[in-house]
Fold this protein.
Amino acid sequence: MTEKANVIAVMGGTFDPVHNGHLRSALELKELLALDEVHLVPCHQTPHRKQPGRTSQQRLDMLKLAVKGEEGLCIDDRELRLDQPSYSVLTLQSLRDELGDNAVICWVMGVDAFAHFTRWHQWQRILELANLVVMTRPGFELDPDSEEARLWRDLQLDPVKLEGQSQGRIIPVRLPSQLEISATYIRDQLAVKRSVRYLLPESVVDYIAENRLYAGTLA
Ligand code: ATP
């Protein structure tokens, strides 16, 4: 029996809360790269930043509401099931073990995050396990003398050539919508009781209001 060669992208984050910036880019990536699935992976504890204010269960509930009915966007709670800090390399290892060597796995990040990629825990191993899909933005340039710029030059792959490329390449993508929404902005708006409607799905706005998830909260 031949192994099914899944083509997936993995978008990790705090999702405190999930918003239309995450959702729209996940959907556009799925279509642009002909992915079978985009895995949205909420982190348990993040090694790089302070703990999110909402519980893991609440962040998971919001994600589930947000993708309800959208085939191909799936919530992957593998980091929440581990009682340890979340590391991309461990998440990717677990996906690789599950999907096998032929699966095309892409880790999604913004170019601003990629600019510090070689400071990530076991970054070389990450590239052995997956490709990087890097969302570019106008006006953001990598330092041409950086290790990341060298990787960018050496490993770059056109999105149309992704088929069969299981790991090790960098795929730059420029998504048409580029919504300038952040979870920080949403939390800041809620803290001063301003509306956050149209920044995130209605079902998530309702959940936030019903459960008074953020200080201030009007939703
Ligand atoms: P915060 O404001 O709390 O830092 P955030 O909105 O940046 O949160 P995270 O939960 O940290 O979102 O999610 C990070 C993931 O989502 C990364 O892969 C990041 O590139 C992507 N992402 C975040 N905001 C957007 C956006 N507006 N458009 C596209 N992708 C986004």
About this structure: Residues 11, 13-16, 21-22, 25, 108-110, 179, 181-184 surround adenosine-5'-triphosphate (CB under 6 Å). Residues 20-32 form the longest helix (13 residues). The CA atoms of residues 114 and 134 lie 7 Å apart. The first strand starts at residue 7 and ends at 13.
